[in-house]
Amino acid sequence: MKTLREVRENKGVKKVAVQRMLGVSQPTYDRYELYPGEMRAKDLERVLSFLGVSRGDIFLTTEESKVCI
Q: What is the distance between the alpha carbons of residues 69 and 58, in angstroms, rounded to a whole number?
């Protein structure tokens, strides 16, 4: 399993593309990649669809947040 950032980078998608698709600021999307547990469920589903992956393909826990979706 990979992190959101790893999946995005492996797909060749720029951070700004996901940020714009979600309609959030750069600092907000940066925080989502660092602390994925802070992302709203509907935004997570939009990101997964945008990247063409399922929830099971992405590791959504970080050592810092200890939150898993």
A: 10
Question: Which DSSP string corresponds to 11-62?
Answer: TT--HHHHHHHHT--HHHHHHHHH-GGGS-HHHHHHHHHHHT--GGGB----
What six digits make up the tokens of 64?
């810092």
46-56 pLDDT, tens per residue?
Answer: 999 999 999 88
Residue 34 in tokens: 């660092």
- The whole-model pTM stands at 0.80
pLDDT digits (tens, 9 = 90+) for 6-55: 999 999 999 999 999 999 999 999 999 998 888 999 999 999 999 999 98
User: Is-contact 36 11, C-beta < 8 A?
Assistant: no
Contact 35, 10 (CB under 8 A): no
